[in-house]
Amino acid sequence: MIAEKLLGHLNKCIQLYDEKCGRDYVIVFGKGKKSAVNYCRITFNEYNFWHLLGCKLNEKNHREVYSQCKNGEDISEKLSLVHSYSEAYTKCEIFSKVFDFVSNAKCIKIGYIANCPEEYYLTMALGNEIGIIGYDYAKGNKQFMIPKTVQEKKISSVSQDLSKILFILSKNQDQKTYTKIEYEIKKGVAKEYFPQISHDIKISENIMN
């Protein structure tokens, strides 16, 4: 069981998470005009939410509890804390300022993620100088990474080997093609770099028009 105050924070965070839930994203990044571009895929599901905020779901029907929390219902008895209350509150605060990577996370680190408790299993970090969201591949899936942790770490303290996010594409999980440009570091950059990634990512041509 968790306290009412924390439940209120979770309710606010789940609204942010739900904006991304059920969608796949391609994040294209690089270090400069002369460097090669790279990309990674991330996806968001209901059952990944609780662990991010330091909670453990005590129910098997994660979709029902997710919906109840999103609707502001009392689910306090269906959750327990993995860590302390203070850490859970901190995770909620960082989450609210960092999780929306389209608006708030401008740097990305792929590879070994240092200086955090999960450094040996995180594959990627997205964030800024407020905090990071750490990602790794789901078990048995090397196509999409999922969010694994929220850390109060400046992304520059995690690594000096950072790349800038150039553009972000998205689609619904049941779609085959990426249909929306979510972010561009400058207008037209997605179309500029499209030929370099089109052989790996099937993207509807209409989003480039």
Quick tags:
209 residues; 8-stranded antiparallel β-sheet; alpha+beta
How would you characterize the overall build of this protein?
The strands form two sheets. Strands 1, 2, 5, 6, 7, 8, 9 and 10 form an eight-stranded antiparallel beta sheet that branches. A two-stranded antiparallel sheet has the order 3-4. Strand 9 and strand 10 form a beta hairpin. The C terminus is likely disordered. It is 27% helix and 27% strand. The chain is of the alpha+beta class and 209 residues long. The chain is built from six helices and ten strands, in the order αββαβαβαββββαββα. The N and C termini lie far apart (51 Å).
Ranges where pLDDT stays below 50 over 5 or more residues in a row are 204-209
Q: What is the count of helical runs?
A: 6
- DSSP strand tally: 10
End-to-end Cα distance? 51 Å
Average pLDDT, all residues: 85
Strand content: 25-35%
Give the topology string: H per helix, E per strand: HEEHEHEHEEEEHEEH
Q: Major sheet: size, sense and barrel closure?
A: 8 strands, antiparallel
Radius of gyration of CA atoms, rounded to a whole number: 17 Å
Can I get a quick summary?
The chain is of the alpha+beta class.
SSE map:
Elements: H1 4-20, E1 23-30, E2 38-43, H2 49-52, E3 55-57, H3 62-70, E4 79-81, H4 85-98, E5 107-110, E6 124-127, E7 132-137, E8 145-151, H5 155-158, E9 163-172, E10 180-184, H6 189-197
Antiparallel strand pairs: 1-2, 1-9, 3-4, 5-6, 5-9, 6-7, 7-8, 9-10
